[in-house]
Amino acid sequence: xxxxxxxxxxxxxxxxxxxxxxxxxxxxxxxxxxxxxxxxxxxxxxxxxxxxxxxxxxxxxxxxxxxxxxxxxxxxxxxx
Length: 80
Known about the structure:
The protein is mostly helical.
């Protein structure tokens, strides 16, 4: 499916981070969906989807923010 030998190290790291974000969001979605205090058992799929989506968006936003800050710091170091 993917030939990981032909891509650079930065892309590999990015793929691993995205896979970890998806895995965490799935786990959180399952925990949120099965929480009967927030959702009735018949609305498990709605709770799962909402929990997964919000978690994925939050983690991806944090990743992009940290990536921006690190690239900004690295550019500042190379300019000096």
